[in-house]
């Protein structure tokens, strides 16, 4: 019976011989190098062929793969939350996002995107982080992502708290040089330190500036809001040349015109998308660690991501989903959909 099920899933997924189990990215870089264009293209299985509750829990029920070789893009989990300042639980984000992703299908009728007909995509499992040492976790994340991007694979990351974007951008900059950044969040995450620590989820983009990882004239932060300790909480971002779009400047309006300006600003150089789920209003995404009222709507989130079509996107992340604070799973469902939308705007995706 199990052999029959495995064979059925493999045919539906388009994988030769079935999928290999992930190994925490421990085997990244091993095995023969194969051009992505020559690799079989995986397809999420149709619920008309394989029932949604059936199979190993992977993103969109794609094959689990231990190596990025032969892939154009891959989903990667980083189950880390020891950099949080308020409510924990984001370590469970990748698993719950994968669970909710069973509702996702292969095409995007709204945009005409056909990602699985254009790219070879799989789930690379999770980075094997150290939950007892944040600095060591950053090292492990950086080393894993260096191997992913060196293989020519674009990572789409399931977080995890926002600390993880710092080592990911270290890996990105090693290959691409300073990158542009589209950052959706309630917070700028540009603090210098807290409780004497310079690395936590409130400091990633300050550390990135310190190390020259960002092209600061091509950094846009959208959805920023909330109370602060001073009346000038955005001074640092402005001083670096970042463009800030406050949440109140987005209320009751389409963000399509804004994204037209963002595309002009980003140009054709490499861009990284970092989406903190708390950029959305907690009415839509309550399962997060540092919620702020009066945020963006899901439709505005779609406008932002779809507005990245045509940009040279080299990586994406969706962070700060904390499932314990939303037992319904709706926050993770929203996150899964936004990650699919990110996949749909990657370079080389066919749009009809």
From TrEMBL:
It holds the Pfam family Arginase. Pathway: Nitrogen metabolism; urea cycle; L-ornithine and urea from L-arginine: step 1/1. Its cofactor is Mn(2+). Its EC number is 3.5.3.1, 3.5.3.17, 3.5.3.7. One of its GO terms (molecular function) is metal ion binding. GO terms for biological process: putrescine biosynthetic process from arginine, via agmatine. Residues 16-49 are annotated as: Disordered. Belongs to the arginase family. Agmatinase subfamily. This is Guanidino acid hydrolase, mitochondrial.
